[in-house]
Here is the input.
Amino acid sequence: MIEVKNVTKKYGRKKVLQGVSFTANKGEITCLIGVNGVGKTTILNGIMNLTPMTSGEILIDGEKLTKESYEKIAFIPDAITMLPHMKIAEAIQFMKDFYNSWNDERAEELLGFFRLKKEERISSLSKGNVAKVNLLLGLALDVDYLLMDEPFSGIDIFSREQIADVFTSHLVEDRGVVITTHEINDIEHLIDKVVLLDDGTIVREFHTEEMREMEGKSVVDVMREVYRG
Amino acid sequence: MNYIKLLNFELSRFIKIYFVLIIITIISQLISTYSVAKNYMNQFNLAVYRDGISIEKYVEQFGQVSLMDLQHSGWFNLPIVIAAVTLLLYCFFIWYRDWLGKNTFIYRLLMLPTARINIYLSKATAIFLMVLGLVALQVILLLIEGKIFKWMVPANLRHDYSIMEYLANTVGDLYLGVLIPMNFIQFLIHYGIGFMFVFVLFTSILFERCFKWKGIIFGVVYALVSMSIFFIPFILEIIFAKRYLYPMELFVVEIVLGLIVTAMSIWIAHYLLNRKITV
Here is the structure.
């Protein structure tokens, strides 16, 4: 389980996150939703120790993040994380060199799934294909948790569909997924848990199934309530 | 093991520019050697065959040509300056290229399942190896340049130096005197200070990467404090106008202070990379 406990992040005097607490379980897809600049990416960066939090605690399976943790939690950011001049094959080799959890078979499967060619250079790829390469590099790791930052941002509808298909496949089965987005439509039906953020704080946290059963509301309905008042 | 992989990766990222530096150095210095030898022989031929000066008289008046004459050639010194400036700039570029622009490779580096200090150490080692590689190239080139002189200039018109003799004569030279020290102690002084400077610079860069604008001030202050610690014995000598230490004692104290500054830089970098770094 990923536990984010009372996390606060300040940039100078500006508070980006204020007392944020939530958990993300294995086998569940947890979605952090909020408008741009609300602190979603900061939370993911904080979980991966890519940005220091001002206060609070983040635990992965009850322990603080260490170098070994990167073998069981992967982050798929919304940007190229490999050198642009690298070929996809070289990026794969880089991951294979450093990660014991790298799964070659799954990498091959993902190459086929996304119809990517190994000899293509990352710099020559469309934004959609860059997002797919990022996903490939994260999903091919045998990790327990996956963090995805805006995987649908700025990409064409066909790529979005393909990426959404990943969530219903065995590729994320049994893993804990934390996904940030402000475009909920593509994955609304896939989400198990929602954390709504506004102005650096959590304004609502719920399980989608319970919300549907108990109050008869969809994620979008709750978002309308929260963000439109 | 991951440190070696990272080092290999860092070296491969610079290899093209490095080969360009090597080629520039080789071509430029060989041109320099050829042109110095050729000019000398042209002048010699004019003096002896046109003006009728005897060989002995010519040698007495103009001296023999040797590797030492290369030091005054721009073609000889220019690649050394280019390589030094390139490697100095690369000390900054080796960090900033991972953060700036579209490229966010720093995400990938910081998320590797290895101690983050390995990123710092591998970058530093890459710089050291590239510097030492160019120094080795320079020594080899001096041997080749000596051979070129032998092919182009008759024995009675040239003075042959062994590498050690040659280096003994370049101690005060701005470029070669610094680049290729005469003995191991000088090597320790020159490259020890150089490598310590790289560690201090890297830690200052990390201050900037961690604290942005404030980090520039922290970095500059850190560099000044580090240099002050290293030069304390000299500063005290200046302040009190008195020499407290014998040269050997001073040497040992400087080694200890250099190690302290280096260890401090690595320790602070370790802390910054684990606790303060931000992508």
Summary: Chain A has a mean pLDDT of 90. The domain at 2-228 of chain A is CATH 3.40.50.300 (Rossmann fold). Residues 77 and 149 of chain A are 5 Å apart (CA to CA).
